[in-house]
């Protein structure tokens, strides 16, 4: 999921890859990661979008599709739920700092 976040992944496909039932996959995933597979995937996509908003001049619409969302409305709503502001607001407030990317990712990782 981390590597193929932009691909159309769903629980049935992930469960087949793991060779377990959908219910068992979801239950085990939530116990290990603290959130559902769907929410985890959304968070990974939003994290990548945050990077692209900070580091590129791509449009919000282009970023939406690049990270795997199929709808700009869903992207904006999900981004706001996770980050606390819209993608455009985030881009305005984000300032590329002269620190290593790993620190920036740790400091800016959404927690909700």
Layout of strands and helices, then pairs:
Layout: H1 11-18, H2 22-33, H3 37-55, H4 60-66, H5 72-83, H6 87-93, H7 101-108
Helix pairs in contact: 1-2, 3-6
Strands, count: 0
C-alpha Rg, in Å?
15 Å
Summarize the amount of helix as a percent range.
55-70%
CATH superfamily: Homeodomain-like
Using the coordinates above, name the CATH class. Mainly Alpha
Q: What is the H/E string?
A: HHHHHHH
The CATH topology corresponds to Arc Repressor Mutant, subunit A
Q: What is the 3D shape?
A: globular
Query: DSSP helix count?
Result: 7
Q: What count of domains describes the coordinates?
A: 1
What kind of assembly state do the chains in view correspond to?
Answer: single chain
| Class by SSE composition | mainly alpha
Report the portion of residues in β strands: under 5%
The CA-CA distance between the termini, in Å, is 19 Å
Largest sheet: none
CATH A-level architecture: Orthogonal Bundle
Write structural notes for this entry.
It is a single chain. With 112 residues, this protein is an all-alpha fold. The protein has a single domain (11-108), classed as Arc Repressor Mutant, subunit A. It is built from seven helices and no strands. It has helices spanning 11-18, 22-33, 37-55, 60-66, 72-83, 87-93, 101-108. Helix 1 (11-18) crosses helix 2 and helix 3 (37-55) packs across helix 6. The protein starts with 10 loop residues before the first helix and ends with a helix. 18% of the residues are buried.
């Amino acid at each position: 999921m981390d590597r193929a976040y932009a691909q159309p992944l769903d629980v049935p496909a992930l469960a087949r890859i793991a060779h377990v039932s959908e219910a068992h996959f979801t239950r085990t995933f939530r116990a290990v990661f603290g959130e559902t597979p769907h929410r985890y995937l959304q968070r990974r996509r939003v994290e990548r979008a945050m990077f692209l908003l900070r580091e590129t001049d791509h449009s919000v619409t282009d970023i939406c599709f690049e990270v795997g969302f199929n709808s700009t409305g869903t992207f904006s709503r999900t981004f706001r739920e996770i980050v606390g502001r819209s993608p455009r607001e985030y881009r305005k407030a984000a300032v590329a700092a002269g620190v290593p990317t790993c620190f920036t990712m740790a400091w800016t990782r959404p927690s909700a």
